[in-house]
Amino acid sequence: MSLKIGDEAPNFTAQTTEGEINFHNWLGQGWGVLYSHPADFTPVCTTELGRTAQLKSEFEKRNTKVLAVSVDDLDSHNTWINDINETQHCTVNFPIIADADRNVAQLYSMIHENASATLTVRSVFFIGPDKKIKATITYPASTGRNFHEILRVIDSLQLTAGFSVATPADWKEGEDVVIAPAIRDEDIPAKFPKGHRKIKSYLRFTPQPNK
């Protein structure tokens, strides 16, 4: 059964390129991104893992750990990392799960049989400090992920977890946000002292409250 937003992220113990981890313990009290790669020594995955390494400081600013999974063994991963570092001009600085038995892939329904019976699709799971799944994105193996979007989703999730707002289409960090419909007009000035714009009764904008 596929995991849904609000479900607890299944815990697991696995060998990684940075040693054995217990997933929930490894996450600690912060946010997490778990994402899958169809196989080692594949071109799109090589660029994605390199991009993740290049963006480590951006994830750290957001108190977010990234964990990759590929259905190959640890020796293969370690050899592949050398290629990633060389071709992407980076240093892979986060763990990659060795999932040759496909335990993690099955726990997270990362193998879509109509696409491939053995390889994972490009799944992304955003996990909150409460170990609940907050968002998911799924791409086919042929489509590399947009890491600006992954960071944007983290920004939105963290903002909306702390304030009674939602983020509109194409929102980026620092832009105006939408006030939640549950907030009454008369309560807006106290909750959002930066002011607001009312377009319709259900469409009210305010500056990003934590900026």
List the helices and strands and how they pair.
Elements: E1 13-16, E2 19-22, H1 23-27, E3 31-37, H2 43-54, H3 56-61, E4 64-70, H4 74-88, E5 96-98, H5 103-107, E6 122-127, E7 133-139, H6 147-162, E8 165-166, E9 177-179, H7 188-191, E10 197-200, E11 203-206
Parallel strand pairs: 3-4, 4-5
Antiparallel strand pairs: 1-2, 3-6, 6-7, 8-9, 9-11, 10-11
Order of helices and strands: EEHEHHEHEHEEHEEHEE
- Number of DSSP-assigned strands: 11
Average pLDDT level: 95
CATH structural class of the largest domain: Alpha Beta
Looking at the structure, the CATH topology of the largest domain is Glutaredoxin
Proportion of β residues? 15-25%
- The whole-angstrom Rg is 19 Å
Q: CATH superfamily assignment of the largest domain?
A: Glutaredoxin
Q: What overall form do the CA principal axes indicate? A: elongated
Total separate domains? 2
**CATH architectural grouping of the largest domain:** 3-Layer(aba) Sandwich
Distance from N terminus to C terminus (CA atoms, Å) equals 40 Å
- Structural class estimated from helices and strands: alpha+beta
Helix content: 25-40%
Supply the number of helical segments: 7
Largest sheet: 5 strands, mixed
- Write out the strand line-up for the largest beta sheet, numbering strands in chain order: 5-4-3-6-7
